[in-house]
Specification:
Layout (H helix, E strand, L loop, with lengths): L2 H8 L9 H4 L4 E3 L5 E3 L5 E3 L7 H4 L10 H16 L1 H12 L8 E4 L8 H13 L4 E6 L2 H7 L8 E6 L15 E5 L2 H6 L3 E2 L6 H4 L4 E5 L4 H7 L4 H26 L2
Parallel strand pairs: 1-4, 4-5, 5-6, 6-7, 7-9, 8-9
Antiparallel strand pairs: 2-3
Helix pairs in contact: 4-5, 5-6
This protein binds iron/sulfur cluster.
């Protein structure tokens, strides 16, 4: 084999990566930037349309995720799947057909979310076309999933709804699989949730549908969260907004002749 051919083979750019946590479990990962981002064109874009209180507590908006090279890679991913969806879908399907992914789990979004119907539907086609891999995710896109995924999910796809978003109220907490972020392991056990610290796959494979995640040890975020969970903070915000809306409509009603 010529030197050029060798260079070409070793220079292959994979779309999927592995962070240190997921590598231990042999899981591959597709990542986008978190929440509101400014793109190189100057355009603002929200990658997590249903984010609620989670946006203020998001580990993916702190620490290593903010390193210039890491952020640039996540923005490249976003631009590829958002602005060149056909090319992205072809490349992703081709990559996932490689033997390195056979029998492997692929986590979608350790940061970011399914920002549009078209993007989610593209992922569902990719999953159906690459049956040797298995896919999972956490998501706050509850209504989008209930509309597009639940009626006909690919067999190799599992998901876990996650609290802290604007659509928390659409989740049946007694029945549907969902995750909440607690201040620590003790708190989640007391609340009756299943600790997923041992393996991220417990988010979709644990017997109990109540998935508890201890908060990342990032001091300013821990302080901001206090003893609350993402779910309890979102409920409090929801109630506050409902009271405010009621007060406004009463005031408008009183002002009408
Ligand atoms: S949806 Fe996830 S990635 Fe997006 S802001 Fe919330 S916690 Fe962060």
């Amino acid at each position: 084999m010529s030197d050029t051919a060798t260079t070409k083979r070793t220079a292959r750019k994979w779309l999927l990566t592995q962070n240190s946590e997921l590598r231990k479990e042999g899981i591959f990962n597709w990542t986008l930037p978190a929440f509101a981002v400014k793109l190189p064109s100057g355009e603002n874009f929200n990658v997590c349309p249903q984010a609620g209180v989670c946006a203020q507590l998001c580990y993916a908006r702190a620490g290593a995720y903010r390193f210039k090279n890491v952020r640039a890679a996540h923005i490249r991913n976003l631009l590829l799947c958002r602005d060149s969806p056909i090319e992205w879908e072809e490349r992703m399907t081709e990559e996932l057909s490689h033997r390195r992914y056979a029998g492997k789990w692929i986590r979608l979004h350790d940061s970011g979310d399914f920002f549009s119907d078209a993007y989610l539907l593209a992922w569902m086609r990719i999953m159906k076309n690459t049956p040797k891999s298995r896919f999972y995710c956490y998501t706050k896109e509850i209504s989008r999933f209930k509309r597009l995924v639940e009626p006909g999910a690919p067999e190799n796809f599992l998901w876990c709804y996650s609290l802290g978003g604007r659509e928390d109220h659409l989740i049946d907490l007694g029945v549907e699989r969902h995750a909440d972020v607690f201040p620590d392991v003790e708190a989640l056990i007391i609340a009756g949730y299943n600790d997923q610290t041992e393996s991220d796959l417990l988010s979709v494979l644990s017997e109990s549908p109540l998935v508890g995640i201890p908060a990342n040890r990032i001091p300013h975020l821990l302080k901001r969260q206090g003893q609350e969970t993402f779910g309890s903070l979102q409920r409090a915000r929801h109630e506050k907004l409902a009271t405010k809306r009621q007060r406004v409509s009463q005031t408008v009603g009183l002002a009408r002749p």
